[in-house]
Structure formats: C-alpha cells, structure tokens
Design brief:
InterPro entries: AB_hydrolase_1, AB_hydrolase_fold, AB_hydrolase_sf. One of its GO terms (molecular function) is hydrolase activity. Residues 34-256 form the AB hydrolase-1 domain. It is a single chain. The protein is α/β, with parallel strands linked by helices and 278 residues long. It has a single domain, classed as Rossmann fold, CATH 3.40.50. The protein is 36% helix and 16% strand. Strands 1-2-4-3-5-6-7-8 form an 8-stranded mixed beta sheet, with helices on both faces. It is globular.
C-alpha cells in the first residue's frame, strides 16, 4: 500500500468565503484531467480521501470539508439538502461547470442531491457505501455512543473504535488524525445530523437521477448492510454495482488502490461515451 503523508494535509487547504454561505475549506489537487468532486461522510473531512489521491492523480480532485467538519464553518443547516446547497455554491464560486461526483456515505447522499439539483453540471456519480435511508437503530452501540457525546469530545472515546472499525486494519498515521478531527466536531452537530438522518428518505431523489452511476460497497458494511444495497439497486436499476467482498463501510481506507481502480474503470467508460468534459 502507498503511504500518504498526513502531516501536511491541513496546510494544503484553502478557505473560500461564499457569498451567501459559510466559509468553506477545500483542497484542489490541480491535476490535469476532468474534475472529480469528492464528498466525505458524516464526521469526516477532506482527509477521508487522502489515501485515494495518489491513485487518482490523472484527475483534478476538488475535496471540500463539508460545513461544520474539518476547517469549514457551520452552515445554515445540517440536512443533506443544506450540505448540497453549500457544495453547489462552492463549485460555482470555483467556476467549475462540469464534474464527476464521488461521495462516501453521507457524501453519497449529498452527491445524489447535487446530481438532482444540477444535472447539467454532474456528468456521473460514484457512491461509496451509499444508502437511501440512513437510519441508525436506537438500541445500537454506535447510536448510543453518538447520543452520549458531550463537549469537549475525547478522541480516545470508545465510540471511535466502533465508528471507524472495519474488517481490515487501517494505518494509525491516517486514522489518528481522522479521530482527532471527528472529536473536534461539536456534539450538537453530531446529534443534529443523526436527527436529520432519521427523517431522510432519498428514494424519490434517486428515481430522478439519469447520469451514469457506480455504487461501490463492502460486503461487511456494519452501517449500511445488504438491505440498504438492495434498496439502492432497486431505485437505481441502471447503476453499475461493485461489491467488495470482505470489506466494511470504509473500503477507500481499507484498500484505496482497489477502490480507485473500480472508479477509474467506470470513469473511462463515461469519458469515452461523453467527450464534453473539460
């Protein structure tokens, strides 16, 4: 596995003050190819995609910290639609008129919303560990852990061992800063997003998506299991699906090279079919 130096990730971020939204931090790799807009999951930051960057160097990677995460200020709301509006404002401010969206978990939901909102901008959508209904069981240890968080959150809180657990070991030089950044998020945001999830159903949004879609999932995903995958496949019957046997909720952390390979194969097909990407 390629080692990615994590110490300088934060220093690479740029801060953009949006006209009607929060200041948003983002990383722009400046790569030569089409724009990939990478959207991270609940409690993560742009760092979530740092392990993928070396494998997708042919593309221009634009990787924001979502509002209230990482170095980005809190936005106007914590619903997926609120995050999508803020990302759309960022993309517009950067002058990007065409991109491919790659979203993980909550980022996949935001990606669906953004694709529905701006179909002329999004040329294709890749969802890693996506779902239509991100419900968390009330009696689940993860749910209980989130609801019991209080400020200041300790990065060594046992919740993070559950939250970031997976079948394959993840390099601690990556996972430790991920946990520290997650712990820096106020408990009100953790709980607020969880509350929004309990009311969310993306089925109608998914039914309106007409761009090429790739769904990547781990067979051992403990958050969004086979039932979630089947519902997503039913709502997106023309989507291509890849099930990574033995992997969990964060396959792009567990084996970024393999995930990047699946993304690259899909995108090559998309780019052959459509030559309008800049």
């Amino acid at each position: 596995m390629t080692t990615v130096e994590q110490g300088g990730w934060t220093n690479r971020k740029r801060l953009l003050f949006l006209p009607d939204g929060p200041p948003m931090a983002f990383i722009d790799s400046g790569g030569p190819g089409p724009v990939l807009l990478l959207l991270h999951g609940y409690s993560d930051s742009s760092r979530s995609f740092s392990l993928l960057e070396p494998w997708l160097s042919a593309y221009r990677l634009v990787v924001p910290d979502l509002p209230g995460h990482g170095a980005s200020a809190v936005g106007s709301g914590l619903a997926v639609s609120d995050f999508a509006d803020d990302v759309a404002a960022l993309v517009g401010a950067l002058g990007i008129d065409r991109c491919i969206v790659v979203g993980h978990s909550m980022g996949a939901m935001i990606g669906m919303t953004l694709t529905d909102l701006l179909p002329e901008m999004v040329g294709a959508l890749v969802m890693i560990s996506g779902t239509l209904r991100p419900t968390f069981p009330k009696d689940d240890l993860v749910t209980e852990g989130i609801l019991s968080l209080s400020d200041p959150i300790n990065p060594a809180d046992p919740l993070f061992d559950l939250w970031h657990a997976g079948p394959y070991p993840i390099d601690r030089t990556f996972l430790d800063p991920v946990s520290r950044e997650a712990a820096a998020i106020p408990s009100s945001i953790w709980k607020g997003i969880l509350g929004e999830f309990s009311r969310l159903d993306m089925t109608r949004t998914a039914s309106r998506i007409s761009v090429p879609v790739l769904c990547i999932a781990g067979s051992e995903d403990m958050l969004f299991d086979a039932g979630h995958r089947l519902a997503l496949a039913s709502a997106l019957p023309d989507a291509k699906s890849v099930l990574m046997d033995g992997f969990g909720h964060n396959p792009h952390w567990e084996d970024p090279e393999q995930v990047a390979l699946h993304v690259e194969r899909f995108l090559q097909g998309v780019l052959v079919a459509e030559r309008t990407f800049d």
